[in-house]
Amino acid sequence: MFASIRFLAYAFLLEIGSLYLMISGADSRWGLLAYLSLHTLAALMMARGVWGLLPRHYRKPVWSTQLLLFLLVLFVPLVGLVAMLIGVAIGYALPSVPREEPFIMVHTPSFTPVPAPSGNGFRQEDLRSLLTGADTPMELRLQGMLAVRDMPTRFTGAVLREVLGADADDVRLVAYGILDQKEKQITRQIDRAMRLLETATAARSYRLFRSLAELYWELAYQDLVQGDIRELALRQSFLYVDRALTEKPDDAGMWLLRGRILLTNGELVEAEKSFRFCVLLGLPPSRVNPWLAELALWRGQFSEVRQLMVQIAHDTNFTALSKAVHYWRPV
Amino acid sequence: MTPPRADSADICLLLEGTFPYVSGGVSSWVNQIIRGFPEYRFACCFVGSRAEDYGEMKYTLPDNVVHLEVHYLHQPGDGAEHKAHDGDRVAFDKVDQFHRMLSSGRVSDSRNRLFAELVDQLGDGQGLCESAFLHSRASWDLITDHYRRHSRDPSFVDYFWTVRTMHAPIWVLKRIADDLIPARLYHTVSTGYAGFLGAMLKHQTGRPLLLSEHGIYTKERRIDLFQSEWITDNRSMVEKNNTEMAYFREKWIRFFQELGRECYQASDRIVALYENNRLRQVEDGAPPQRTLNIPNGINLTAMREVRARRNEEIPPVACLIGRVVPIKDVKTFLRAMRTVANLMPEAQGWIAGPEDEDPEYAAECRALIHSLQLDDHVHFLGFQNIADLLPKVGVIVLSSISEALPLVLLEGFAAGVPAVSTDVGSCRQLIEGLDEEDRALGSAGEVVGIANPEALGRAVAGLLRDPERWRAAQQAGIQRAEAYYTQERMFASYRALYQSLLNDGEAR
Amino acid sequence: MAGIGFELRKLLRQDTLLGLLRAYAYAGVIGSGPWVLSIIGILIVGLISLGVVSPAVAVTQFQVTVTYIIAFSLVLTGTLQLAFTRFCADRLFEEREDMILPNFGGVTLLVTLVSGVLALLAALFLFPGQSVLFRTVLVACFVVVSNIWIATIFLSGMKQYRSIVLLYGVGYAITVGAAFLLRGFDLEGLLLGYLIGQSALLSGMLVLILRGYPSKRSVAFELFDKRWLYPSLMLVGLFFNAGVWADKFIFWMDASTGSPVIGPLRASLIYDIPVFLSYLSLIPGMAVFLVRMETDFVEYYSNFYDAVREGGSLSYIEDMRNQMATTIRVGIFEILKIQAIAALLLITVARDIFGLLGISELYLPLLRVQLVATALQVVFLAIINVFCYLDQRRILVLLTGLFLVLNVVFTLISLRLGPQFFGYGFLLALAVSVGLGLWLVQRSMGRLEYQTFMLRSG
After folding, report:
1. Is A228's CB within 8 Å of B452's CB?
2. HEC per residue, B316-341
3. Among partner residues A68, A83, A99, which is closest to C105 by beta-carbon distance?
4. Does the ipTM surpass 0.90?
């Protein structure tokens, strides 16, 4: 900074000298040359001086930036320097301008008609018999598979696995692909969470435990794994639920998940404890009661089921459960 | 190493993405066939996708391969600007006519004649040359007309590039066909682009064409395309019909179907590995009278030596032999090993095969081992010499979701190792037998459904834990391999085929 | 000039007559800004110094010097104008904005070096009779004005139209003010005033640029990388600017029409005044051109290419193509209409203006010719613009090259034919180029999709 100002001061002196030469000196070629050499020297020092005053990120690349400054003050004597210094000063003084407008123009959407019409794909038929029936034409079965692809495997898992045994390779492999892809999505998330867990802080590992518990549960719940692997997934889920609860014992969501895992394993007493604890922690009846009701159903306590379902009806007016609630409503 | 060059050959093999640059079942089979016929001089014409997709040769070329040429279908554009020109309207009208025949779905003599006529015009400077396809007004009019008539997807740019990318290899193949050294017989080991090249060669030279199909190319492509993420459906939410395939997907599938159909129509003989595949070929347009089955065969003498190196006890080792790729469904094998390990804690699972083809999948498998807590039970061995490996194996496991007629099962049988396999390709035929006589030999293991780790695991454990059943399966395997699946039988069938086709070719 | 459309559309959307007028006024100033302001500025400086500056010829000397500075700097930087605009637009499209500022620095460095050295050589050897101060200021002016063109391109590339207009206004106000204050120092004073004003304009632009587009580097030369440089666009810029000035230069140099003013600089009184007056009529035409081109045309244009790139249906693509063609047709028709009105107006008042300025009425016929030529020049600019958008560089080179050659040839012929043909050279050159251009536009639009899909490299 000070070095730059010193450079500028000397440069000014030199420049004034050169200007004096220019105005007073005879219009001879020698006078011109003397002026030019003095001015060039001044320009060199000015370039160095102004360069030192530039904001840091404008100083690179070192040589060509200084060359640019040098050329400008060389060819535009004094005026160039003054304009430049004023420019730098203004540049520092003004607040920075926002570069991007927060809004952009979007085009109005247009409807583009499809050149060739597509056939009517509506069909009323039992999906299972459509997919597994050996006498259904191949194209139709593949079409069915396309429809199934976008449905949750919780509902389609069984059918898809049945199709895995189909005689036609095409259908079979597509079914495999659907199951595999969904399973892979979850497994990848599990792998990522596991890797993150290795280096995670305490606060972060709580969140990771939580999501691992949910992911493992999802594997089982979405019917993506069977048998030993399913048991393993449930076990893992339970393990991570416990770890999450060790970190944060009042996590009602984890208690609920814990209860559901236990319920799946048939450990009704433990499951009920978990669910009751959820209620204590303040989870609304609409979230807990269905599971308590299922528990009661397993035990054959139907009046208990009704009571629980009625509570849901008070609690909310629209859930996926409304049909079940309606069923249990006292007449 | 510079590839061998010759002016002519007896048999020219048309190889798409296989021998000698890719290892695998088909490549090994090609290797086997070439070595089995030292009396013929072979030329190999390798057709790949892009140069960077392939590494070094995976096989040493047999001495009777006198000629090898390597071509790639997908080449970058030349980047130049092009002049507008009208193009040959008449020729493109013929193309239009041909496509109408394609969409009618029937094969006929007139279609075959038209096809031959079109192929003749593909050369440089002719009506249907590459530059005419890429840049002429006539071609543009045809493409836009077809788009208007058929496209269910609004995106014209996707339609346009789908058409281009799809057809571009045809001219590459045409150039290959023009420059290929003369041969007395063309033998393609798949349909697809190589098969189409065969069809072009047949029309151009009049030489006989033989097709041997291991998997069914069209079907495999169809499955690939069905699951591919890169083909999108550009219709908006309201226009979309979930039960309908994305139009471009369908277009690709149909394209490969037609490539296959042309190859089937042009082939003099069409060989499948087993009956189901033959039926599939007929369904896809192969004239039934030209089809036949020739199963794979193994080198019995070598395998007998391996068998001799076994000792009496049954090693508690289940081994999957194959590349670590999704189609082998290694993950199901791993999950099955969880069940096996639960049932017999001393059991080991081995995976013998290269992992470099799909590193991402291999990494997923390793992660799965860890999360299944199988680190002590499962080991990746990398590529293994089968003669050293098989004596240490208790049961060969095949968890593939698709196979044709896997040689590893046969080699395992001959070496005295029973197998548990998924019910794919001809696996049931290999393990349980084909006809009455064959079935009488007994079961050489067990067949389970695909992607069913529980059943697979139980079957493996069941076999390993029941020495009596195991020995019965071992004997059934040995007898079946020796009776039906010997190399000699396969060579004899091909010898007869080669001789008759070569004679036919001379007679023409 | 992509991007002005947004501002204009905001104004047009107000849907009032005032809004519409403002939009056109705005477009007029932007489109013709540099030209018109320069002419007006020089004229005003001339007017205010009449009678003060001695000798009186110094005023003419000043005006001619500045005209030469503008002409030569435009031709010199013309080689980089379009190439640099294209570079900015491409990088913006790729969202690599950070590359633009350093390359602006690189272009500035190059332009400063070349213009400075050329001007220095000229000052050293061509003006032996002039003072050192005059020569120094001459060099400085040339460097500054050259850089102003580059900065203007950068800012228009960055869609900073409002700032350009504002800065030009302030810059020329300072120019006039400084010249007014310094007119006591005669020619040198006027020129120094011009330098101060232009320097203020340039530094204002630089401040705006540097502050608005921070970068980690100040200077880079990636613009000249083979991947990103279009030599054909350099030719187009050079041809167009040289073409616009060719007839003037010939008239200056010809012994019968030009006379020496200062050093080697010559002027042609009979040609210059009608020419510069007629350029004032450019304003309404440019306004219409900008409004049509930058709002309607660009909208259809971007719809067209968005549909091409992002999967529109063919019918939509064709529809957009047709809309583009219609806009061009309507736009050109409107330009001609408005130019005709402006020309008629100017012709009616020309006699009075000439009287006021003390110019002989002998110039009137030439003014009429020039007014028609100016109208065609706006149309020609519109055509060039269309082909820039369509990226048909070969046609651009052909059109501008033809324009340059024809202007030289026809102007030379008109000189031989005598005074009643003066101006027809320029007019005819433009007429032929515009005619060919319109035919090419029609042909290109007719096969736009075919060309876009089938003839581009894939």
Report:
1. no
2. CEEEEECCCCHHHCHHHHHHHHHHHH
3. A68
4. no
